[in-house]
Amino acid sequence: MERVPRLYVEGKREECVENEKATRDCVVIDGNVEVWLRKGDKLPGFIGKNAKFLVKEVYDRFYLYVDRTTNRMSADAILVLPDGRTRIYLKRDDELMLLPVEGFTKTLIANVGNRVRTGDAFAAVTTRKGEVHYLKPPKNGTVVFIDEVTNRPHYVYYILPEE
C-alpha cells in the first residue's frame, strides 16, 4: 500500500482555529513550541498572538508553494513522511533544485524523503536507441516532491539541497 506524505503549509489563524477550537488538522508554531492539532482539538492557552499556523494541504499541491521562476518556497511548510516520524521543515525562501526527468522511458530511483548525493543517480532515462542515462543531482539534498507533468509524461524532482 503506497502512502502519501502529509503537507502542512503556512496559513492564517482563521483557516485553522475558530472559537479556540481547530476547524481542521494544523500545526501551530509559537517560538520553539510546536503544537499538532486535529480537527476539534482545543487550542492551548499558552499560544500567543504571534504564533504561526500551518494548515493541512493536499500533498499533490506542493508545487503551488514553489515559485517556479526563482525555485524558492513561497511559504513555510512541513512534510510528514509516510512513516509518521520523519519531518522535513521548509522555510519561506528556501531554494530548491528542480531537476527534470525527460526521455523515451523514465525510471524513478529516489523517492520522497530519500537523501541523494552528487554521485548517486536519482532517476534513469532510456532513449529511443536504448541508451540509458543516469541523472545525478548537482548537490547533495533530500527529495521533497516529485511532480508528474500532466501535459506530457515527464517528471520534475524537487530537491532541498544540503547546506
Summarize the structure.
With 163 residues, the chain is mainly β. 2% of the residues lie in helices and 45% in strands. The model has no long low-confidence stretch (mean pLDDT 89).
Structural Rg: 18 Å
Shape: elongated
Helix content: under 10%
CATH class of the largest domain: Mainly Beta
Order of helices and strands: EHEEEEEEEEEEEEEEEE
Strand content: over 45%
Give me the secondary-structure category: mainly beta
What's the total number of strands? 17
Q: What is the CATH-assigned architecture of the largest domain? A: Beta Barrel
Euclidean distance between termini CA atoms? 34 Å
Number of individual domains? 2
Q: Which strand order does the major sheet show?
A: 5-4-6-1-9-10
Report the mean per-residue pLDDT as an integer.
89
Instruction: Please give the count of helices.
Output: 1
